[in-house]
Amino acid sequence: MKLATPSVAAIDIGSNTIKALVATRNEHGLLESIEQRALDSRISEGISGDSMRLTDNAMADGLEAVAELMAMIAPHHPEKIGIVATSAVREASNGGTFAKRVEDVAGYPLQILDGEAEAKLIGRGLLCDPAMSKWDDFHVFDLGGGSLEVLTFKDRKLEQAVSLPLGCVRLTEKFVADHDAPFVPAEGEAIRAFVRHTLQAADITWLEEQPVAAFTGGTITTSRAMVAAAREITFHETQPQVTVELLGAILKKLGSLPLSDRRVVPGLPAKRADVMPTALATVIALAEFANLTEFQHSLYNLRWGLADSLLPHS
């Protein structure tokens, strides 16, 4: 009698979104989703300041999201549950307090990842994507609310990994004066200049060595969702190859709108509407720096890497 394949659950507490995945391995040893969910729960308010501290409201919202995701996970009875947090919690002076509260709610400890560990799990998750199975040498980018992860793979082995303070919540707080108003072109140029300066200061010259790149995270996912809504097709009917030209067109459209109008754009989650122009400007600046004209979008990121680390390989 064949034993049932075990399942595991992963919760990723990001700066802008909290996501969960319940996964198992199929008969070919590939990671497969049983159920997954993402909740917009921004815990990173104030991340651009000199002293980052999670507010009581942000922590309460985050804990509510964790409780909801644990309720989703419970019926699957996973053998292992891993919970991790990224830049907002690791930079917060009261991140340890939040970690203790998460453990009280979830019944499992919260691991606060440093930038290197975060990047490695993102890379591990991407390698679980069947669409990437034939990719050998490539870059991977993941843009969150607090940070941008930049990775390079050679022969499918992680060679370089850098975490940079270029998250869309962070840069929106830093450069956008009036969040309710249309996105001012001067603000977009200031963001692009800051991204270029940060990349240059980090001495990431190896970005120019490989013209093939994948992108994970909510910015490209949301862009595809907006395209799907505009064309009245499903998300999975959109192309995973997302051009910089398309991102520029989306930025031009969104940037002309006040926040109240952005919040009702089909495919754009209302809670992401304030940071989406900044996120697009950041991605475009990154593409210009690396001489890229398009990205391969992947839905396999940190939580997939965490799930993969929890499941035994046959």
Protein described:
The chain is an alpha/beta fold. It folds into two domains: 7-114, Nucleotidyltransferase, domain 5, CATH 3.30.420; 130-297, 2-Layer Sandwich (Nucleotidyltransferase, domain 5), CATH 3.30.420.150. It is built from eleven helices and eleven strands. The chain has helices at 56-73, 87-91, 95-106, 115-126, 168-175, 185-201, 218-231, 244-255, 259-262, 276-290, 302-310, and strands at residues 7-13, 17-25, 31-40, 80-85, 110-112, 138-143, 148-154, 157-164, 213-216, 241-243, 294-297. The strands form two sheets. A six-stranded mixed sheet has the order 8-7-6-9-11-10, sandwiched between helices. A five-stranded mixed sheet has the order 3-2-1-4-5, with helices on both faces. β1 and β2 (17-25) form a beta hairpin. The chain is globular and about 55 Å long.
Structure in a nutshell:
The protein is of the alpha/beta class and 314 residues long. It contains eleven helices and eleven strands.
Summary tags:
about 325 residues; alpha/beta; Nucleotidyltransferase, domain 5; 2 domains; five-stranded mixed beta sheet; about 40% helix
